[in-house]
Amino acid sequence: MTKTEKNYLKSIELLGEQNKQSYQEAGEIKLPASYGQVNKIVACGMGGSQLGVDLVSSLFAKELKVPIIQVRDYQLPGFVDEKTLVLLISYSGTTEEVLSISSKLKTPFGSAQGRQNLKLIVITTGGRLAQIARKNHWPLYKFEPKNNPSGQPRMGTGYVIGSLLAILKKLQLIKVSGDQLNDILKLKTKNLKNKIIVIVAAEHLAGNAHIIANQINESAKQFACYFILPELNHHLLEGLAYPRQKNIFFLFLNSKNYHPHNQKRFQITQEVLKKQKIGLTEINFAGPLRRIEASSKIIEALSFLYWGGQLSYQLAKLNRVNPNFIPWVNYLKKKLS
Fold first, then answer.
1. Which of 83, 146, 171, 223 is the most buried (most CB within 10 A)?
2. Under a CB-based contact definition with an 8 Å cutoff, are residues 270 and 283 in contact?
3. What is the distance between the alpha carbons of residues 121 and 35, in angstroms, rounded to a whole number?
4. How far is residue 164's CA from residue 11's CA, in Å, rounded to a whole number?
5. Domain that holds residue 34
């Protein structure tokens, strides 16, 4: 096993430590009291920097007091105002799209494009984004990714999960118990198996589906996508007839915590795929804390998070590719610079 491979696996093992480190550190940053007086959150970021937001927004959908809108673009939406908490997230601190947004926000609380008193928080390891934050006196969580030896943002998802939860908790924008937060800070190892291309999930596991697809794309250099139930049932089942060569494989992230109708949809959807002779498998990590529904959901989400990282690594080995090397993404960035 090469050093690169060892570092990749170590990052997976240290996911819980990433959560702990970032939750503790981000909880210490000073935020104005007005930051808690918002009616929405806009999280700006790209690629791996948004994966933690995906997980938190889906896993804690019922506990969040305000909606989280994710922006993967060069500018803020027109509805952003003084009642919006804007998060600028870039693992590297050099993400072009996030820097484009930050460049338009010149004052400590932002006044670009007619927006007054914007509430901003920056999450990054450094780079140009950290410099801009310091210059404009924006609240900044700058972390040292000591628990992500791979150096890949998608393998440092725990840093965004932990820091985002700490910020939401500090501003009283999420209602979670101490037990729930403890669950988010620990992981259990699960066996890895099965090759996948299409991931299907629902409700609190929607963020996991996105994360796993992203990791397979980048780490294993393999095409993967995801669909969410019940939306999938309104179109995709009729889109599997052609091409007739069935080289597609479905992975279902199932859960006993889903709405009963969604559980039934999982069953019927699998029946439809089998009738069309399409390969599939189902993974179900039952959370052991049945006495607390939300905690069992957390255990499930974190188990899938760990499992997905392991899966992407095993697929990379199967495909004989370097999981840390992203030549085409780097090519694109070089051509854009």
1. 171
2. no
3. 10
4. 19
5. 3-184
Q: What is the mean predicted confidence (pLDDT) over 148-165?
A: 92
Chain centroid, CA 90 distance in Å = 13
Name the one residue in this structure whose structure tokens are 């085409």: 328
Report how far residue 316's alpha carbon sits from residue 323's, in angstroms, rounded to the nearest whole number: 6
CATH assignment at residue 307 = 3.40.50.10490
Cα–Cα distance, 294 to 260 (Å, whole number): 16
Beta bridge partners of residue 250, listed in sequence order: 198, 280
**Residue 279 burial (CB count, 10 A):** 17
List, in order, residues 6 or more apart from 148 with CB less than 8 Å away.
11, 14, 18, 155, 156, 158, 159
Tell me the residue length of the chain: 337
Give Cα separations from 237 to 111, 222, 233, 234 (angstroms): 48, 23, 6, 8
pLDDT of residue 288 exceeding 50, the answer is no
Do 151 and 59 share a domain, yes or no? Answer: yes
Domain end, chosen from 184, 216, 236, is at 184
Alpha carbons 74 and 45: distance in angstroms, whole number: 10
Cα separation, 50 vs 189, in Å, equals 24
Q: Residue type at 85?
A: L
- Please name which of 243, 211, 246 lies closest in space to residue 225, comparing C-alpha atoms: 211
The whole-number average pLDDT for the span 129-149 is 95
Could you tell me if residue 44 is left (phi over 0), alpha (psi between -120 and 50 degrees) or otherwise beta?
Answer: beta
Instruction: State pLDDT tens for residues 294-310.
Output: 457 887 887 788 778 87
Q: Are residues 217 and 159 in the same domain?
A: no
Domain match, 149 and 232 both? no
- Cα–Cα distance measured from residue 89 to residue 142, given in angstroms and rounded to the nearest whole number: 10
Give, in order, the Cα–Cα distances in Å from 210 to each of 37, 50, 98, 254. 30, 10, 20, 15
Give the torsion through C-alpha atoms of 287, 293, 295, 300, to 10 deg.
40
